[in-house]
Amino acid sequence: MNPLTARPAAPTPGPAASTPRLHMLLRSSATRRDIAVYGGAVLVALLVGLALVVVGGADPATAANALWAGMFGSPYGFGSALNAAAVLALIGTGFTIAYRAGLVNVGAEGQLALGGIAATAVGVTVPQGIPALVGVPLVLVAGFAAGAAWAGIAAWLAVWRGTSEVITTLLLNFVGLGAVTLVVHEQGLLRQPVTSADTLPQSEPLAEGARLPLLGMTDSPATIAVALAGVAAVVVSIVLRRTATGTRLSAVGLSAPAAARLGLPVSWLRFGALSVAGGLAGVAGAGLVATVPFVLAEHFTSGYGFAGLVVGLLARGSLSAVAGISLVFGLLASGGINVQLAAGVPASSVQVVQSVLIILVAGAVILRKGGAR
Known about the structure:
Elements: H1 15-55, H2 60-73, H3 75-100, H4 108-123, H5 132-161, H6 165-185, H7 225-242, H8 244-254, H9 256-261, H10 266-289, H11 304-315, H12 319-343, H13 348-372
Helix pairs in contact: 1-13, 2-3, 2-12, 3-7, 3-10, 3-11, 3-12, 4-5, 4-6, 4-10, 4-11, 5-6, 5-10, 7-8, 7-12, 11-12, 12-13
Protein name: Simple sugar transport system permease protein
Organism: Nocardia goodfellowii
Keywords: Cell membrane, Membrane, Sugar transport, Transmembrane, Transmembrane helix, Transport
């Protein structure tokens, strides 16, 4: 054989060539493990719920049918679940941004409250004939600005004064909720005009053009907040995974001193991450007051801020997990209301099931990390 015309032999695959295949195998194995863990957690939580139904004296079949009907049996119930999931997804998405920079935002409840206050202030002062293309963005931007400013207080204390953002955001929750109570009780602020002793301490309804439009699903209360939450999750996912800003945030989260030595603006990145997280929680608050019944009232946050914190913690930085967990929680909330009405089971039973699910998933994550050391 002529060595000048002979074809070179194909190179033997080395360790480097097999690395991508190994990564794929490891990833698929981790995915199967995650499915098993989450599926097992859901199964155990459902068994706990079944036990609560039996102890409460209700018929398990009736309760199960009521739960299913509340989640998927009617367009109204499913639309309500989607609206709740949108609020949780916005908060969880913001939590993920702060978490990527090494910060934990525990203040979504207060940021939600301030976003609702600002959105209401705008929604009740704009002209009644304002078009939705103008009024709705104004309300949402006001909510974002208020939530970001509220989170910015904790961010400033954390970045430039060394105060723990966990403590400051947690304490600011109570101030934010107190602010809601104040503005809906004082006539000089946002309380509707008192016409009789029966007038409720709440704001006037938002102007027609400041209310979130419906998605257009038949007999469904789902609003464009659902689409807004989806767009926010997609955009944030792209920013965190595909842009220089996401890389910088990851570097800061992994090691702020090392990132500073590389010349990154660590302080501003951390400040911006926590502020944007608060802004998204504020948008969620604006969405709550711009949805039926279109008023600001006490306890309008309904614990969404703390539930959104749990969503962010369980998602562990995955925006797809944020969407999935938010939807599950929204469906459980909608189904729990129907179980209470149709089967006579206390609504707190659904909260117990959610708590058990959270404990099981969180425990599995902790055990996995402990075993990986």
